[in-house]
């Protein structure tokens, strides 16, 4: 299966590794191998496995039993020594023992691989790709020249179980790929390994990170953590996991505040820089894609810096690491939540682990290191050891959770499933009937010469159940995606306990995979309330988000909605307009009906009403005084009939202002302007008639003038009637053509509906006012001409002054009316009516009432005509 060409091309890539070389003529090494080639194969170096067991079929196991390493001096002047491993990991040692247990169970089984035995070779990768390469090559070469089949026949190595880290698995897969040896990883989750073009022989019994990052993204969205930090290792696992998470977060409201990378070889200065970024950031949730070996030294410095208040979201690589169960971690890491591998049950594991001790394995250095890690004693007899010697009689207790925690195995259970997956595949391969096999010409594999690629075919098709769980591989070599949601909580003894608070089932429909029991979660700081991690606080209803220039979309300002717009949702990016007849409330959270405004009977309306009634009452009182003294000189001389007409018209003028108060209706709108215009036209017609009479009365004293015969009572009535009739005709045409009507004005003030009377025809409206103005001007001119006529009581003077006030009021009315909003326009018009009416009443009738009531001695014809002295 393997030729010398392959060895010469592949093996020199590494230094200080177990390599077979050919000792005969180098030229012959490029020719086909000869039967005698195996005799000249020699090992240039060796890498001893931790545990070995012979069998009919051998599988390899590679575990990171140490989590740290020291690089040798590479000065190229001598053969460098191997990488020195340190930092013993009892948890990884347990994984290796789980593989041994599974192999022993299979060998003892009468149903699985009867009459055949499995062997194994287990190596320590030191959690380092270079050491993993040495282990892989040692698996290929064999332990010695005698048992190495590399130069003569197919390897007895059928499959490899490993590695834990994705970076190491990538290296191992590439090493094993030319030999088509399948490997099953129990802890490598990088989604990159699902690429069957690059890694055709790779399988795993743990879900790939595509599912984990989907679960983490849903978790962040679920708890509204929109501002998070990312910390990852400088390996494929962290790089591809972060890439996948960022891809999943696209289209969500979650933003990444920072992304920090721990160097491949731990650097304390770089770690302190990362910790400083975490301390200064407003992101209170940190997602960490780190291995246990990366997380352990990082947390040491993290705790020294005394940082608290960070809510950690853990990846499956370290969320259930028993090394973090010590109570010293709880003040800093308590409340951590993450996704752990689905736990299983291995019934014999606890008893089997207790059989491992220095007495059973006196020459095994790893067992001695286990005892040293668990009991703080030394199994070495060297005098330079600073630890007390181990007796070898120490008993393994449950307190050694890093090694003895078998209550809910997760990674160890994956190792257990991986071994059984190989066994079931091999069992199916051996059951093949000649002539019905899956290979060329329907052939089967030869039981005494099985090639790894033949086993790979059966691995791809394998399906079995273990402890009620179905195990199989999809076309990408991945397994069914299940995760337990783990929460770090304080146990009764003060240590950290991994509490299951939910699950993620990747087989369920989108959006239904995540099931969480939120009431069972304890968050960072031992709080029961969900931590808040946002760049900007949520915008409450009534406001919208305004993204800050040059910053992520999660960082924004809250801008109140404009008037007339509302938003009843949190964190909305826009406010919407209210319907036409509605307006936003004070908080901008709901549309309420617009305030309807008109000149109602409020304080202003009541004031105008009272003024109108008082004016009408005063007019009636003057009417009564005049009627009671109708036979006196001042009433008779000033034409009592016209005076009564004027008082009647003034009463109507005062009362017509009441029509402007109240909600506009079609009838009230038509009545407002017509009543106002006709009553004032009537009043001014009477004043015009009185002015003509006064002017004629004083000019009739000249010899030969007979003008009074043309201004008798009938002629006066005709003047009043004809002048008023013109206004009536204008109003009638107005009402017929385009009458005033009630309208809802929303343009002047958008927050209100102003109920007003639209004039209908603006031309008619201004014609009505223009006619009244024409009458007033005519009265003013005529009265002005008669202002110097003789007599003690010249009414023309009072009419002149009255018309001045009347014209001043209505000239001021025009701009005030046009510029007044809403109900105030009606109030201005009503006020102009009242003001001009009071002006007419007081200027025309106050002097006469004064003489009637206060100076009755002047109420004689002689006095009024200026003849009393004569």
From TrEMBL:
The lineage of its organism: Eukaryota, Metazoa, Chordata, Craniata, Vertebrata. Pfam families: 7tm_3, ANF_receptor, NCD3G. It is a multi-pass membrane protein. It comes from the Eukaryota. InterPro entries: ANF_lig-bd_rcpt (IPR001828), GPCR_3 (IPR000337), GPCR_3_9-Cys_dom (IPR011500), GPCR_3_9-Cys_sf (IPR038550), GPCR_3_C (IPR017978), GPCR_3_Ca_sens_rcpt-rel (IPR000068), GPCR_3_CS (IPR017979), GPCR_3_vmron_rcpt_2 (IPR004073). It comes from Dicentrarchus labrax (European seabass). This is G-protein coupled receptors family 3 profile domain-containing protein. One of its GO terms (molecular function) is G protein-coupled receptor activity. Residues 1-21 form the signal peptide. Keywords: Cell membrane, G-protein coupled receptor, Glycoprotein, Membrane, Receptor, Signal, Transducer, Transmembrane, Transmembrane helix. Belongs to the G-protein coupled receptor 3 family. It is found in: Cell membrane. The keyword rRNA-binding does not apply. Residues 604-868 form the G-protein coupled receptors family 3 profile domain. The keyword Ribonucleoprotein does not apply. CDD domains: 7tmC_V2R_pheromone, PBP1_CaSR. The chain crosses the membrane at residues 604-628, 640-662, 674-698, 718-736, 763-786, 798-818, 830-853. GO terms for cellular component: plasma membrane.
């Amino acid at each position: 299966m393997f030729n010398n060409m392959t060895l010469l091309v592949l093996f020199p890539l590494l230094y200080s590794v177990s390599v077979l070389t050919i000792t005969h003529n180098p030229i012959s090494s490029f020719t086909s191998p000869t039967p005698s080639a195996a005799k000249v194969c020699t090992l240039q170096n060796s890498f001893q496995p931790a545990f070995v067991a012979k069998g009919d079929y051998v599988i390899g196991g590679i575990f990171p039993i140490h989590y740290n390493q020291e690089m040798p001096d590479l000065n190229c002047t001598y053969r460098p020594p191997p990488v020195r491993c340190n930092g013993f990991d009892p948890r990884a040692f347990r994984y290796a023992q789980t593989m041994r247990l599974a192999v022993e169970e299979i060998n003892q089984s009468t149903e699985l691989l009867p009459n055949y035995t499995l062997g194994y070779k287990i190596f320590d990768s030191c959690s380092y790709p270079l050491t993993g390469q040495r282990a892989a090559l040692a698996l290929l070469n064999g332990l010695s020249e005698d048992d190495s089949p590399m130069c003569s026949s197919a390897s007895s190595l059928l499959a490899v179980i490993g590695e834990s880290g994705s970076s190491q698995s990538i290296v191992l897969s590439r090493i094993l790929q030319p030999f088509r040896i399948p490997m099953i990883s129990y802890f490598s989750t990088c989604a990159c390994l699902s690429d069957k073009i690059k890694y055709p022989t790779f399988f795993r019994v743990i879900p790939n990170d595509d599912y984990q990052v989907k679960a983490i993204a849903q978790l962040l969205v679920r708890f509204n953590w929109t501002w998070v930090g990312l910390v990852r290792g400088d390996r494929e696992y962290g790089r591809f996991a972060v890439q996948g998470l960022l891809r999943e977060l696209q289209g969500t409201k979650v933003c990444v505040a920072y992304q920090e990378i721990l160097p491949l070889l731990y650097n304390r200065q770089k770690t302190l820089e990362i910790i400083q970024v975490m301390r200064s950031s407003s992101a209170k949730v940190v997602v960490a894609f780190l291995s246990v070996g990366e997380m352990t030294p990082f947390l040491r410095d993290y705790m020294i810096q005394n940082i608290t208040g960070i809510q950690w979201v853990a990846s499956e690589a370290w969320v259930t690491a028993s090394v973090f169960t010590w109570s010293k971690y709880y003040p800093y890491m308590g409340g951590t939540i993450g996704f752990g591998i689905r736990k299983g049950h291995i019934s014999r594991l606890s008893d089997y682990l207790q059989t491992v001790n220095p007495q059973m394995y006196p020459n095994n250095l790893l067992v001695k290191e286990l005892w040293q890690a668990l009991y703080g004693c030394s199994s070495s007899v060297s005098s330079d050891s600073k630890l007390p010697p181990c007796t070898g009689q120490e008993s393994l207790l449950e307190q050694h959770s890093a090694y003895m925690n078998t209550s809910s195995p997760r990674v160890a259970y994956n190792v257990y499933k991986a071994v059984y997956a190989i066994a079931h595949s091999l069992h199916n391969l051996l059951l093949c009937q000649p002539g019905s096999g899956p290979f060329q010409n329907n052939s089967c594999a030869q039981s005494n010469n099985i090639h790894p690629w033949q086993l790979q075919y059966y691995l791809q098709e394998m399906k079995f159940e273990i402890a009620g769980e179905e195990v199989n591989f999809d076309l990408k070599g991945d397994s069914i995606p299940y995760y337990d949601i783990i929460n770090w909580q304080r146990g009764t003894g003060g240590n950290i306990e991994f509490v299951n608070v939910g699950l993620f089932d990747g087989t369920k429909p989108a959006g239904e995979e995540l099931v969480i029991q939120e009431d069972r979660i304890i968050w960072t700081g031992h709080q029961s309330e969900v931590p808040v991690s946002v760049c900007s606080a949520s915008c409450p209803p009534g406001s919208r988000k305004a993204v800050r220039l040059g910053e992520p979309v999660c960082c924004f300002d809250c801008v109140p909605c404009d008037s007339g717009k509302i938003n009843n949702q949190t964190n909305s990016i826009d406010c919407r307009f209210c319907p036409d007849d509605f307006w936003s409330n004070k908080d901008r959270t709901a549309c309420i009906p617009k305030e309807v405004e008109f000149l109602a009977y409020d304080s202003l309306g009541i004031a105008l009403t009272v003024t109108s009634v008082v004016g009408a009452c005063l007019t009636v009182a003057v009417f009564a005084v005049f009627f009671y003294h109708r036979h006196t000189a001042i009433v008779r001389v000033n034409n009592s009939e016209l005076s009564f007409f004027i008082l009647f018209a003034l009463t109507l003028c005062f009362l017509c202002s009441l029509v402007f108060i109240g909600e506009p209706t079609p009838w009230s709108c038509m009545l407002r302007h017509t009543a106002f215009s006709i009553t004032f036209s009537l009043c001014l017609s009477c004043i015009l008639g009185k002015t003509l009479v006064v002017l004629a009365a004083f000019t009739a004293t000249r010899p030969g003038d007979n003008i009074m015969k043309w201004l008798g009572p009938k002629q006066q009535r005709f003047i009043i009637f004809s002048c008023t009739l013109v206004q009536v005709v204008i109003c009638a045409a107005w009402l017929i053509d385009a009458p005033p009507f009630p309208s809802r004005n929303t343009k002047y003030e958008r927050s209100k509906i102003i109920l007003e009377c639209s004039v209908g025809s603006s031309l008619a409206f201004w014609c009505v006012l223009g006619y009244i103005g024409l009458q007033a001007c005519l009265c003013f001119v005529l009265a002005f001409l008669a202002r110097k006529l003789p007599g003690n009581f010249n009414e023309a003077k009072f009419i002149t002054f009255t018309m001045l006030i009347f014209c001043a009021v209505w000239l001021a009315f025009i701009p005030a009316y046009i510029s007044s909003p809403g109900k105030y326009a009606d109030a201005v018009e009503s006020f102009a009516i009242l003001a001009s009416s009071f002006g007419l009443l007081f200027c025309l009738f106050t002097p006469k009432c004064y003489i009637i009531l206060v100076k009755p001695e002047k109420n004689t014809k002689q006095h009024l005509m200026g003849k009393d002295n004569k």
